[in-house]
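Quiz preparation item.
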């Protein structure tokens, strides 16, 4: 049995499914930004580790150890953000597939596409919270009082 698919349904399905693609663009941009920050965290950690290994000053050990703890926490936040963004991209991709299939076939998956889209947006928002937290922690390391000259 051959079924005929109306090109108008396919066109409408493509039109409907492309709307979430714009969110994928934002996700890809955020992954690049967070990956860049993670790279800088790792580079800074290597520099601090070298300083720690070559230092003979016990007072320096405590300060370096504390900065390494901050860098480790920031790295975990960046990794979590990347993981949430990746999950977001997966869910948005699933939404696109569900919308397209729902428009071009007899599949009834309206609720599934709504929930996958909302879950994707939720993951994006959580990733933004992780990103914001990481940037706040990054700036708290700076002690501006020591930079002032009275």
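Solution:
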């Amino acid at each position: 049995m051959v079924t005929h698919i109306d090109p108008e349904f396919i066109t409408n399905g493509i039109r409907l499914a492309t709307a979430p693609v714009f969110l994928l663009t934002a996700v890809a941009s955020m992954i690049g930004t967070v990956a860049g920050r993670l790279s800088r965290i790792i580079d800074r950690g290597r520099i601090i580790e070298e300083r720690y290994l070559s230092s003979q000053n016990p007072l320096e050990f405590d300060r370096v150890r504390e900065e390494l703890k901050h860098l480790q926490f920031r790295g975990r936040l960046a990794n979590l953000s990347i993981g949430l963004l990746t999950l977001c991209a997966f869910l948005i991709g699933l939404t696109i597939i569900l919308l397209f299939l729902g428009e071009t076939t007899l599949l009834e998956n309206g609720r599934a596409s709504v929930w996958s889209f909302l879950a994707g947006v939720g993951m994006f928002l959580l990733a933004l919270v992780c990103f914001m937290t990481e940037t706040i922690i990054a700036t708290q390391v700076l002690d501006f009082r020591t930079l002032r000259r009275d």
